[in-house]
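Course assignment 3, question 2. Fill in each field.
Student: A.L.
Task: Predict the tertiary structure for the chain below.
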Amino acid sequence: MQVPGRISLGVVAWAAIAASQAGCGNSGDAQKHAKPTATAVASNPSIPDPLATIGDGKITVADVRARVGDQLDQLDIEYRRARDKLIGGAVDTIVRSRLFESESKRTGKTEDQLVAAEITGSIEPSDAEINTWFNDNQARLGGRSLDQVRSQIAAFLRNRRRADAATKLEDRLRAEHRVTVAFEPYRVQFTNDGAPTLGRKDAPVTLVEFSDFQCPFCKQAAPTLKQVAQKFGDKVQIVYRQYPIESLHPFALKAAEASLCGNDQGKFWELHDAMFADQTRLAVSDLKQTARRLGLDGNAFDSCLDSGRHVAQVQKDIQEGQRVGITGTPMMFINGVVVDGGAVGFSMLEGLIRHELSRKAPTS
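Answer field:
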């Protein structure tokens, strides 16, 4: 669950810098390759069954589910996710507000003074820090020069320090006041059978990413997920799910298949990194060359890719993505809770993962 009080400053500043979408979006083409499934949902007592009759014939809920069941499930997920995001955000905001008010009364300091006291060193970023951020985020800046975005970068770094200090203060106060949160956000349940993974299966946090190998925003997210793996180790398992959008990326479908062919030989992540490193080399001939360069059995890889062995797995992932309301890539879920924003930065993922680790493990 996202905590507005903890991330909003950074999000606002980032929006001013990167005024563009953070994901590749077009669900229509993905739907073309998906096959409908009959997913059961809990019965609603307000809906009669049968819904209608024609003479002695009946039109039942099961009949309707057979025709529009997927859409009903999607609407249900969207509603529950929006409802719980609203409730959860309000709970966290109220907790934060009451903690800060109590601490202000105890110390006689304003909230700004309390937050400022948590900042180590100067709040103002140095030129070196601004230059480093600029160099590390070229893909997000749309070709703008350092002079064009210097003030915005400085504001972003300044606000991020304030947000980090506020989080540090809140964490300390939560521990001191023994805060417990009984409310659990809506968590999407995934069937990740056959999907490539990184990390322990029994990790307390599972991060599921739906991605497209030709999407530039997915390329942007790839190193961020590496940071997650390096930072959290056995505490986080990363699951990669396929969501190629052919109308935007004509090579994405075969690239998705190729990655699973690589997974057959224990080389998924090597192929994953290579394809994102150079998205201009995703034609079938390029993929076969890349597989050989990475040390895969070339004949076995070629046979797998040419036969379409993993088309069904890709379609399964697309269907799963549609079920949970995906309209673009990358899209991530942390223990089943959606991460808004597409290719979000590491600091946001880190905060959400730490927040999740601080809560009791999901019961389902």
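Instructor remarks: Residues 197-357 form a domain with the Glutaredoxin fold (CATH 3.40.30.10). The longest helix spans residues 61-107.
Grade: pending
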